Amino acid sequence: MRDHQSTSSMGSLAPSSFSKDWKTRLNSSSSYVLQVVTPDQSRKIYQALKEKGLPVALVEYEGEQHGFRKAENIKYTLEQQMVFFARVVGGFQVADDISPLKIDNFDTSSDA
Question: In three state form, how does the secondary structure of the chain look?
């Protein structure tokens, strides 16, 4: 864990600055208008984990904010998170007929 008292700038507290310490998979959803973790930070986290070879997926939603508002985005996010965890963590198929998004460092070109 980092000592937040000794950091010299808020940039060092950005979520992407911790990505080098992550050792597990991540499914991240982001909006273009996000004020908590910016889209740029989401992309940096995604890229860092992808470069580490960890299973990762990123979905960006235009017009959404922190805490999704549009029903279709909420539904899609929940379905994709369920499928992501079933495939990567649980190793099982979900019962629902859901087309999974591509998981980088997990799917081969013929799997997704």
Answer: CCCHHHCCCHHHHCHHHHHHHCCCCEEEEEECCCCCCCHHHHHHHHHHHHHCCCCEEEEEECCCCCCCCCHHHHHHHHHHHHHHHHHHHHCCCCCCCCCCCCCECCCCCCCC
The Cα–Cα gap between 64 and 90 comes to 29
What's the rounded Cα separation, in Å, for the pair 52 and 43?
14
Residue 23 pLDDT level (bands cut at 50, 70, 90): low
Q: How far is CA 17 from CA 57, 75, 104, 108, in A?
A: 19, 30, 21, 29
Cβ neighbours of 56 (radius 10 Å): 24
Tell whether the torsion through CA atoms of 58, 59, 61 and 62 is positive or negative.
Answer: positive
Quote the pTM value. 0.65
